[in-house]
């Protein structure tokens, strides 16, 4: 039998480590009569790659009689992957500079990029004497993930060598910011490069970004022509793509043709049915699943609650073998979306009793429930949970707090939260603008909007609803017109029925009834009851019988069970002395079976 040498011992050790048998690898290491630097590196690598047992690897690293560049690179990589960037940085600074590039530098640079610290990553990159294709690809990806596409493209063009990762990162960068033409143009250029071979990751990026079905079908054809039809990862993306465009027959055909399906395949198909109103098909598939995970169960819980079928939703939730914070949030949100505000709080209490830690979405949902109930003390209790759980700096929670306090009538509390947000986003701005507008602080709402514009925020449809509502409260007709027109001329936002309702209300309150009527007739979308309701209210205010009748007739069609248009038009007839018309309208109301709802007053008792 041949005598083992250091090389063969190290090969045995490496084989055990690569197969996940780290205990056997360590036994071989301890029994070795002699060890080289490569042996020590192999054992350290085994610890780092198997369950991120970095501390055990570091213990060996500290005991090494001698080290080389690989020793440091492995340890830095280990600390970076486990999020201990500061330790990796210290090792990097301790190692000889001549050993840093490119492997150790790449590891540290990638650590910074994954933590979102782009400038630190750039500093390492620019300090490198020797760079490889990994260095360039990592920096291109880092710039793209921050949306700094121009700088990424400059690096891409200057890279001495590009591989499939470089191309994919740059293509993905364009697609993520909506620059489809540049992304697909670059993809075409990649296909022409004979030195780069397309892989399933690149094609998945393209499929996920397809802006329409036609493009999706073309990429699907490319996948088939390149022989990737049996790639599970890629097939899952194609199934998801067809589901996204509502082509469930095509998605089901791909799913059925897959030789091998994993959990993602089943979950993608079930989610597609849920998103496309096929809850029964989703449930049938769910029951056929060979195995299920939390995502499978939660998708079905959401699917049934979206259909208002809370009984089935609760039944599935109770059957779940393991319930995580996402599942609990799904059932709580289900009650909320179906108007069960009180039930959502009851389930939250149960969640806390089960020792499941709520996440930011859970708390945001409960804050929305407080807004729906209009009960401030409930919202304040959730706010206390937010503080207790150190989530007061979560932007989604902060935005929900602003909205909750505003909707519960505490505009001062809303503004206090708003001003405490370090980096408010457009949702933060919208919540505060809407809060000001709803409580009659029109000037404050418009001032905040002006600040929003100066700071470079991009307003959306919700922003303009708040702005136009503010103009209504302050009576700023000309300014309202300017803001309304700027939606299309400056921001390319098509006004919706709610925006028109605000404008009709604004014009109507100012007595500009003819302009309000003309605006309705110019609408590119169908006016809803809010639009005609605003015109009816203004017609009543200014006793314009013709327009009141026009508005009321449309409301009779849109809301046949509502007594409001009958009552308003009847009052106008009464004031105008048209008793015959008034009696006729009341008779019509009785014939249609429309009943006037009695007034109510809600008082919350402590």
Automatic annotation (TrEMBL):
Keywords, comma-separated and alphabetical: Repeat
Repeat (PPR) residue spans along the chain: 5-35, 36-71, 101-131, 132-166, 231-261, 262-296, 324-358, 425-459
InterPro entries linked: E_motif, PPR_At4g14850-like_plant, PPR_rpt, TPR-like_helical_dom_sf
Pfam families membership: E_motif, PPR, PPR_1, PPR_2
MF (Gene Ontology): RNA binding
A biological process from GO: RNA modification
Matches recorded under PANTHER family: (PPR) REPEAT-CONTAINING PROTEIN, PUTATIVE-RELATED, PENTATRICOPEPTIDE REPEAT-CONTAINING PROTEIN
Protein name per Swiss-Prot or TrEMBL: Pentatricopeptide repeat-containing protein
């Amino acid at each position: 039998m041949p005598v083992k040498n250091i090389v063969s011992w190290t090969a045995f050790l490496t084989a055990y480590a690569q197969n996940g048998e780290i205990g056997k690898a360590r036994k071989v290491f301890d029994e070795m009569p002699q060890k080289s630097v490569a042996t020590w590196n192999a054992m350290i690598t085994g610890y780092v790659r198997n369950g991120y047992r970095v501390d055990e690897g570091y213990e060996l690293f500290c005991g090494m009689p001698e080290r080389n560049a690989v020793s440091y690179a492995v340890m830095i990589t280990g600390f970076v992957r486990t999020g201990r960037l500061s330790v990796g940085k210290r090792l990097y600074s301790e190692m000889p500079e001549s050993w840093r590039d490119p492997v150790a530098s790449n590891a540290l640079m990638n650590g910074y990029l994954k933590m979102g610290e782009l400038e630190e990553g750039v500093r390492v990159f620019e300090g490198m004497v020797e760079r490889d294709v990994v260095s360039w690809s990592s920096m291109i990806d880092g710039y793209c993930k921050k949306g700094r596409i121009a700088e990424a493209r400059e690096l891409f063009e200057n890279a001495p060598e590009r591989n499939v990762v470089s191309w994919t990162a740059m293509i993905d960068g364009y697609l993520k910011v909506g620059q489809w033409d540049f992304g697909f143009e670059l993809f075409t250029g990649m296909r022409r490069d004979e030195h780069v071979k397309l892989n399933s990751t690149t094609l998945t990026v393209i499929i996920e970004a397809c802006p329409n079905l036609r493009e999706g079908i073309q990429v699907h054809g490319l996948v088939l022509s390149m022989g990737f039809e049996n790639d599970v990862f890629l097939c899952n993306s194609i199934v998801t793509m067809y589901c996204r465009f509502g082509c469930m027959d095509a998605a089901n055909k791909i799913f059925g043709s897959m030789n091998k399906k994993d959990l993602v395949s089943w979950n993608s198909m079930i989610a597609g049915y849920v998103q496309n109103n096929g809850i029964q098909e989703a449930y049938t598939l769910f029951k056929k699943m060979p195995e299920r995970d939390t995502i499978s169960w939660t998708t079905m819980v959401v699917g049934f609650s979206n259909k208002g079928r809370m009984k089935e939703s609760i039944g599935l939730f109770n059957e779940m073998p393991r319930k995580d914070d996402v599942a609990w949030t799904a059932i709580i949100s289900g009650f909320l979306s179906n108007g069960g505000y009180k039930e959502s709080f009851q389930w939250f209490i149960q969640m806390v009793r089960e020792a499941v830690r709520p996440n930011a979405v859970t708390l945001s949902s409960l804050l929305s429930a407080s807004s729906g109930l209009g009960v401030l003390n409930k919202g304040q209790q959730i706010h206390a949970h937010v503080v207790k759980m150190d989530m007061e700096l979560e932007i989604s929670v902060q935005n929900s707090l602003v909205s909750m306090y505003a909707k519960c009538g505490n505009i001062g509390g809303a503004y206090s939260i708003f001003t405490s947000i370090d980096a408010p986003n457009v949702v933060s701005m919208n919540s505060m603008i809407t809060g000001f507008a709803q409580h009659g602080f029109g000037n404050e709402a418009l001032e905040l909007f002006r600040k929003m514009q100066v700071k470079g925020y991009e307003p959306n449809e919700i922003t303009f609803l708040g702005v136009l509502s503010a103009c209504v409260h302050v009576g700023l007709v000309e300014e309202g017109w300017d803001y309304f027109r700027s939606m299309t001329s400056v921001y390319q936002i098509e006004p919706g029925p709610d925006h028109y309702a605000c404008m009709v209300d604004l014009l109507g309150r100012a007595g500009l009834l003819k302009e309000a009527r003309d605006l309705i007739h110019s609408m590119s979308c169908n006016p809803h009851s809010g639009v005609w309701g605003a015109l009816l209210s203004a017609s009543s205010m200014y006793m314009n019988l013709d327009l009141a009748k026009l508005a009321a007739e449309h409301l009779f069609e849109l809301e046949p069970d509502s007594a409001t248009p009958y009552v308003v038009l009847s009052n106008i007839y009464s004031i105008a002395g048209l008793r015959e018309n008034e009696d006729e309208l009341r008779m019509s109301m009785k014939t249609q079976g429309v009943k006037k709802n009695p007034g109510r007053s809600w008082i919350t008792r402590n």
